[in-house]
Amino acid sequence: NRRVVLAERPKGAPDDKTLRLEESAMPKAGKGEMLLRTVYLSLDPYMRGRMNDTKSYATPVEIGGVMTGQVVAEVVTSDVDGFAVGDMVLHGSGWQDYAVSDGKEVINLGANPDNPSWYLGILGMPGYTAHAGLLNIGEPKKGETVVVAAASGPVGATVGQIAKIKGCRVVGVAGGAEKCAHVVDTLGFDACIDHRADDFAAQLKAACPDGIDVYFENVGGKVLYAVLPLLNAFARMPVCGVVSWYNLPGLPDGPDMGPAIMGTILRMKVKVQGFIIFDSFGPEHHKAFIADMKSWLADGQVTYKEQVVDGLEAAPAALNDLLVGKSFGKMVVKVG
Ligand code: NDP
Fold it and tell me: Which residues lie within the region annotated Disordered (predicted)?
C-alpha cells in the first residue's frame, strides 16, 4: 500500500522535500468495515492550505500524516450494509492506494457509474462550489456583467457557464492564449483576458464596458486589483479562493492595498462574502445543484474538461503545477 505523507511544512511553494511517497502495511478491514481501492484522486488548491499549521476551517495535515484528498474508490471487500464488492464510492481517504472505512461519510456511486471521476469535479465539490457560490451569494441577474478568474479550471469554468445560462455578460481571466481560446470558443464566455498580458487591467476594462456586477473571487492578487475600479454600485463578490496568494510565506511586498480594497467596498456598497462549500449551504442547495447540473450536462449547456495524471507518484508535482496555473482543466490522478 503506497501513500503520500506530509514530510515537512513548506515555506512558500512546496518542493520535493514537502511530500514523501512511502510504503505502508496493507490496511485490513474488520467487522462492519470495507476495504477501498483508490481509482481516482482529486487534486485541489485547498490542499496547499492543509500543509500550513495555521487557524483555518479545517485542521492541518500532521507531519507524517497522509495528505488529505477526495477519491473515487472501488469496494474490494465489504461488511457494510449498502456497499457491495465492485461498487464505486466517493470518500475522503486521501493520497493512498487503499483505505478501510466503516461507511460513514461515504457516498455510493453504484457498480458502473458513468464518468466516475466527474464526481470529483463538475458533479462534485468544485461544481457545487461554483453553483452555490454564484447563485446564492453572487445573485447574477440577466444582463449583468460577471467576471471570474481561473476561468478554465473546474470552479471558474462552471461559474462562467452558469452565468451565461442566467443571461449575463461573462468575462473570464486565464493564464495564456490556449486557455483563453478554450474559455471563449468551447465554454462560450463573451471574452477572456490573459492575466499575464502587460496591459491586463486595460484589457479587462475594455471587456467590461458596463462595469462589473459580480466578481467571483478565485485568485486575489493583480486580478482583484484590476477588478476593484470596475465594480458597480451594489456589486457582489463571493470570495471563494485566493490561489495566487496560497504559496506566499508572509505578507507580500509592495503598497498596502487595504485602503483601495476597503474604500471600494464602502463607496460602491459591495457585498463581500466568503464561503466554504462544506458548511456554508444547506442540503436543499446541494439538491438544486445536482438537478441543474445533470440537466445542463445532458443538454450540452455545460461542458467539462479534465486533466488526468497517471500514478500516485506523479501527484506531488501535479499539485505544484495546479497551484501555479500549469494545469488545464480539472486535475485528477488515476491511481489504480
Ligand atoms: P484550478 O484548477 O482552476 O487551479 C487554480 C488556477 O488558478 C490555476 O490553474 C491558474 O489558472 C490560476 N492561478 C494560479 N495562480 C494565479 C495567479 N497568480 N493569478 C491568476 N490566476 C492564477 O482550481 P479550482 O477551480 O479547483 O479552484 C479555483 C479557486 O476556488 C481556488 O482559489 C480554490 O481554492 C477555490 N475553491 C474554494 C472552495 C470553497 O469552498 N471556498 C472550494 C473549491 C475551490 P490560470 O493558468 O488560468 O491562471
Answer: 1-15
In a domain, 181, yes or no: yes
Q: If you average pLDDT over residues 42-48, what whole number do you get?
A: 97
Q: What is the pLDDT of residues 256-268, one digit of tens each?
A: 999 999 999 999 9
Q: Above 90 in pLDDT, residue 336?
A: no
Mean pLDDT of the chain: 97
Asked, for residue 49, whether it belongs to a domain, the answer is yes
Mean local confidence (pLDDT), 288-306: 97
Residue 274 CA: nearest ligand 1 atom is: 41
pLDDT in tens, 213-248: 999 999 999 999 999 999 999 999 999 999 999 999
> Cα(265)–Cα(233) distance, rounded to whole angstroms?
9
The CATH code of the domain that includes 256 is 3.40.50.720
Spell out the alpha helix ranges (H) of 51-192. 125-132, 154-165, 177-185
pTM for the model: 0.96
Burial class (CB in 10 A: 0-12, 13-18, 19+), 159: buried
Cα–Cα separations (whole angstroms), residue 180 to 174, 197, 265: 6, 12, 29
DSSP 285: H
Question: What ipTM was assigned to the predicted interfaces of this complex?
Answer: 0.98
The span from the CA of 276 to the CA of 288, in Å, is: 18
What residue's CA is closest to ligand 1, atom 47? 174
At 245 the three-state DSSP class reads: helix
Structural domain count of the chain: 2
Contact assessment for residue 75 and residue 89, using Cβ atoms and an 8 Å cutoff: yes
43 C-alpha to center of ligand 1: Å? 11
| Ligand 1 centroid distance, CA of 24 (Å) | 32
Contact at 8 Å (CB) between 97 and 2? yes
Residue 134 and residue 106 share a domain: no
